Amino acid sequence: MTTPAPTSHAFDRAINLTAAGTNLFRGEVDDSFQNMVGPFGGVTAATLLNGALQHPERIGEPVSLTVNFAGPVQLGAFELEAIPLRTNRSTQHWLLLQKQGGEVVTSGTAFFATRRETWSEQQHEMPTAPAADSLPQLVRSERNWFRNYDFRYVSGLFDPSRSDTIEDADSETLLWTRDHPARPLDFASLTALGDVFAPRIFHRRQRFTPAGTVSLTHYFHADTEQLARAGDRHVLGHARATRMHNNYSDQVAHLWSDDGQLLLTTTQVAYFKE
């Protein structure tokens, strides 16, 4: 079982859970990570994962996490069911259900495993990018959750004031990011960082449109020791879409530590409206 993280940082307060019974936790949503509709999806996903991380029956470390955003998460209290569906010798499967008012607002599944040292190879190399400290920090205030992250864009900044035509824009973003104030990286914060990219439709069309994540899946490539080595330094993130069609768009993204180690691969599907 993981010792609960200290709650002095805004992120730790946001994902904080209190045990309330067998497979049951309680938490509270405040406005510190508020987004367009409900809280920032990354912190919601991290909260679900935290239920498994804190569970007394948990074994191993997260290898994958899928989160489905079934409805808006409201400010106030919630219950989180973290149910170990099956535990084998070195693997464990989880069902995660966040509820408000007796209704499921977010559901998830997670796969944990005890990793063993094997032959390893990284085939997707980190893109070339200037050092994070050489780039200006982008200060954004449109949404509450922005103030909790340090964004340093290499390319692909969404800017609706640009004069590009739609044909000149694309859906790619390359940026350095980390928690603000800086916080040592762990599985919960990596989960949230995997969702910091704006909807790809914003970048492709260079204008706001109603949009939001419906489902995301994270694949964790790092273990606890590798995350500890990353410390509280920036991670490099790259995201792009592969197709936007009939109200839905995908996104494929990767996060690397500053020494070039791939930490996370993530995919998601988001809705968008005209």
From TrEMBL:
Any Pfam family hit: 4HBT_3C
Positions of the Acyl-CoA thioesterase-like N-terminal HotDog domain: 36-112
Signal peptide: none
Residue ranges occupied by any Acyl-CoA thioesterase-like C-terminal domain in the UniProt entry: 129-271
Family matches, as InterPro entries: ACOT8-like_C, Acyl-CoA_hotdog, HotDog_dom_sf, TesB_ACOT8-like_N
Transmembrane regions listed in the UniProt entry: none
Cross-referenced SUPFAM superfamilies: Thioesterase/thiol ester dehydrase-isomerase (SSF54637)
Gene3D superfamilies with a match to the protein in the record: Acyl-CoA thioesterase, double hotdog domain
Protein name, per record: Acyl-CoA thioesterase
Organism: Halopseudomonas pachastrellae
